[in-house]
Amino acid sequence: MRGDKLALAVVLVCAASVFIVYAMTSNIVLRNIGSVKTVGVGVYWDMACSQVVSVIDWGIMEPSAVKNVTVYVRNEGNSPTTLSLQKDNWNPANASSYISLSWNYLGQAIATNSVIPVTLTLSISSDIQGINSFSFDIIISATG
């Protein structure tokens, strides 16, 4: 009977060890907070344009993750404008090879003081490696 208990204990310990090793090697957790910079427009958390967006906390993400954040962009210039999106200052520099930022803005002209909702989408590649945290600047500019 004592031998059976010992054998069962050994099996349980081995199974737990395999699970821990698997969990450690298969989960990559990424953390990011992105700075938001603007030129000729304002970016806000609300349609009333009372809460300015200066950073976006994307939270904790894993490989293959996709997160959406909706912001409100107001034309603060003197004439109708279109928008452009740029990403800059990637840290680490190779993060842009595994991480992408896109949006649903379709290029329509925005009248002076008009506000439109824009959804930003951050996507993490399934084959990301060697990156545990990253940062970059999101630049939304008025053109035209």
Describe this structure in words.
This protein is an alpha+beta fold and 144 residues long. It has a single domain (29-143), classed as Ctag/Cox11 (Pfam 04442). Helices cover 17% and strands 45% of the residues. The protein has one helix and eight strands. It has one helix at residues 2-26; strands spanning 30-39, 41-44, 55-61, 66-75, 82-91, 99-103, 115-124, 135-143. A four-stranded mixed β-sheet has the order 3-1-8-5, with no helix packed on it. Strands 2-4-7-6 form a four-stranded antiparallel β-sheet, with no helix packed on it. The N and C termini lie far apart (84 Å).
List the helices and strands and how they pair.
Elements: H1 2-26, E1 30-39, E2 41-44, E3 55-61, E4 66-75, E5 82-91, E6 99-103, E7 115-124, E8 135-143
Parallel strand pairs: 1-8
Antiparallel strand pairs: 1-3, 2-4, 4-7, 5-8, 6-7
Sum this structure up briefly:
The chain has 144 residues and is α+β, with helices and mostly antiparallel strands. The chain has one domain: Ctag/Cox11 (Pfam 04442) (Sandwich), CATH 2.60.370.
